[in-house]
Specification:
By secondary structure, the protein is an alpha+beta fold. It has a domain at 43-124. The strands form two sheets. The chain has a four-stranded mixed β-sheet with strand order 5-4-3-6, with helices on one face. Strands 1-2 form a two-stranded antiparallel ribbon. It has helices at residues 68-75, 79-92, 99-115, and strands at residues 8-10, 16-20, 44-47, 57-59, 62-63, 121-124. Strand 4 and strand 5 (62-63) form a beta hairpin. The longest helix has 17 residues, at 99-115.
């Protein structure tokens, strides 16, 4: 393919319209990491295992964090607690339950509540 691809798809009659890789005026959205807004204070946060999820914290809008570093950066959680949560997430993502995993989840939920000054309502959902 020797010709350059257009920056937008044209309708069959050759008029612009259809899908744009960026807005028609050529502007680009700002890449602003500072605009992240986590769950509101008082939100219910579910501690729940899922395949391939390292930080098993689920808010009203879904998964909250992708990795332990985000948890530390956004909520000020200690690195040790974040590591324990990631370890639990990886261990429990196979879907098997055990009394040991349930007890560890309960401990982690209590620790999360304390480390966030009880801003959220954490529950373990096996």
């Amino acid at each position: 393919m020797s010709e350059d691809l257009p920056d937008r798809m044209l309708s069959p009659d050759g008029q612009t319209g259809g899908w744009f890789a960026f807005p028609p005026d050529g502007s680009r959205p700002d890449d602003d990491d500072a605009s992240w807004e986590g769950p509101r204070d008082g939100s219910l946060i579910r501690f729940m295992a899922e395949i391939s999820v390292d930080v098993p914290l689920w808010g009203p809008d879904g998964l909250i964090f992708n990795d332990g570093d985000e948890l530390v950066a956004e909520w000020g959680i200690s690195e040790d607690l974040a590591a324990d949560i990631v370890r639990w997430g990886r261990t429990s993502s196979d879907g098997l339950q055990s009394p040991e995993l349930d007890a560890e989840a309960a401990r982690l939920v209590r620790a999360l509540a304390e480390h966030t000054d009880h801003r959220f309502r954490f529950v373990y959902q096996p």
